[in-house]
Amino acid sequence: MTNPPALTYASAGVDTEAGDRAVELMKDAVRRTHSDRVLGGVGGFAGLFDASALTGYSRPLLATSTDGVGTKVAIAQALDIHDTIGFDLVGMVVDDIVVVGAEPLFMTDYIATGKLVPERIAAIVRGIAQACEVAGTALVGGETAEHPGLLAADEYDVAGAATGVVEAGDLLGPERVADGDVLIAMASSGLHSNGYSLVRAIVAAAGWSLDRHVDEFGRTLGEELLEPTRVYASDCLTLIRDPRVEVHAMTHVTGGGLAANLARVLPQGAVATVERASWEVPAVFQVMRELGNVPVGDWESTLNLGVGMVAVVSAETANAAIAALDALGLPSWVLGTVAFRGDSGIGADSGTAGDLVSGTKGVSGGAVRLVGDYR
Fold first, then answer.
1. For residue 156, which of 69, 113, 237, 287 is within the disulfide window of CB 3.0 to 4.6 Å?
2. What are the PurM-like C-terminal domain coordinates in residue numbering (predicted)?
3. Residue 347: which pLDDT band, with cuts at 50, 70 and 90?
4. What is the Cα–Cα distance from 256 to 302, expressed in whole angstroms?
5. Three-state SS for 212?
6. What DSSP element (H or E) covers 17?
7. Which of 164, 131, 128 minimizes the C-alpha distance to 51?
């Protein structure tokens, strides 16, 4: 009986040396996110963050979030452009933390791939690090896993998690929302990282290629679809800390659309009225709707339609909020208002009644009514 051929980890499809090369290519970008609060270097078993500053809090609350990028990675892989997807990952994670008023302190990432190509992994991590710099968040660790046989050689998926802190007395949320509060919308940079399963289905059904030039976009379809997510964390913290502005709540407009995510941060009995005519829906959303003959309900409940973040502020400070965001170079506008309807129970039941949306994501909160027509 002859001996079977010798098998090694490399012959099974895992290249540990490639992983080491990837770390060498990415480590400078990761280090740029570090302040003196990060201990140790790149490549340790655990990331270390100096939490001694928390002793200055009366009651520090830790906030945490985890997310991925979804099927937008398929666009990056098809175009072989990997240095922007990190902004999508960071935005999906840290901007879920800042809505409660927390400062995102540090983040870790995880990349699974069929074949570890050092240059590709390094490009992904450089994008993550650059986005962390924008957010003011330290990238303290990560992991890259090679999964041959589970993922194709050119396939990968990314995920991340972050931790932040907020003083208990400064926590934002439904309890702070008051009758007459004003909704301040902050513009998205495009599709961000939600609804790509629908978008990709629309594009496939229409037979459009990613290199197709689309006049309404002024660039190719692929370039439009790969537009990075806007990272709001730093700007939102600046707004929250502005003494001229009284922020009561915030919502990050991700999966589920504007109304569903806004309803999550309103208390029961509160109804937010959103004026559709208050903004012009960007071309990418209009084109996708028409190209796929998407029903308005699906369109509104899947895509952000140009609104990436909403701040709920006191009526008296709404103008100051707009001025503060304008000074940061972040387009914003008055989206609508909040009114209380007593103990009517609005928002207690899940579902949508006409243009009234409530009870989403398992939260029995307030409700959102979309009124009027889009421009």
1. 113
2. 179-341
3. very low
4. 5
5. coil
6. helix 16-31
7. 164
C-beta of residue 320 within 8 angstroms of C-beta of residue 273: no
Domain ranges of the chain: 15-46+59-167, 174-342+353-371
Residue 349 has pLDDT above 70, yes or no: no
Nearest of 213, 161, 223 to residue 190 by alpha carbon: 223
Domain 15-46+59-167 has CATH 3.30.1330.10: yes
Of the listed ranges 133-147, 220-234, 347-361, the one predicted with least confidence: 347-361
Tokens 């990761």, residue located? 30
CATH superfamily of 174-342+353-371: PurM-like C-terminal domain (3.90.650.10)
Helix, strand, or coil (residue 76): helix
- Between CA 322 and CA 183 the distance in angstroms is 11
Q: Please give the DSSP secondary-structure letter assigned to residue 53.
A: G
| Fold: same for 15-46+59-167 and 174-342+353-371 | no
Give the position of tokens 């922020």.
247
Nearest-10 Cα torsion for 18, 19, 24, 28: 140
Phi, psi torsion values for 366, nearest 5 degrees = -85, -160
State the Cα torsion 65-66-70-72 to the nearest 10°. 70
DSSP 156-179: EEEEEEEEEEEEGGG--SGGG--T
Angstrom distance (rounded) from CA 22 to CA 51:
29
Burial per residue of 277-291, b for 16 or more beta-carbon CB atoms within 10 angstroms, e otherwise? ebbebbbbbbbbbee
The pair of three-digit structure tokens given for residue 247, joined into one six-digit string: 């922020």
Please answer whether residues 148 and 114 qualify as being in contact, where contact means their C-beta atoms are separated by less than 8 angstroms.
yes
Please state, in angstroms and rounded to a whole number, the distance separating the CA atoms of residues 19 and 269. Answer: 54
Euclidean distance between CA atoms 184 and 245, whole angstroms: 12
- β-sheet with 156-167: strand ranges across: 60-68, 156-167, 103-113, 138-146
Please determine, for residue 96, whether its predicted confidence score (pLDDT) is greater than 60.
Answer: yes
